[in-house]
Amino acid sequence: MHRQRVLVAMSGGVDSSVAAAILKEENCEVIGATMKIWPKELCGQEKEKSCCSLKDIEDARKVCKNLGIRHYVFNLEADFKKNVIDYFADEYLSARTPNPCIVCNEKIKFGSLLKKAESLGCGFIATGHYARIERNGFCRLREAADKSKDQSYVLFCLKNSQLKKTLLPIGGLKKDAVRDKAKGLGLDVYDKPDSQEICFVPDDDYSGFIKRYRNIKPKTGNILDTSGKILSQHLGYWNFTIGQRRGLGIAAKNPLYVTEIRPKDNVIVVGESGSVKGKKFLAKNVNWLIKDIRKTAELEVKIRYNHRKSPAFVKDIGANKVEVSFKEPQNAITPGQAAVFYDGEYVAGGGWIDRVISQNEYDSFCEITKIEG
Question: Is 199 designated active site?
Answer without folding.
Answer: yes
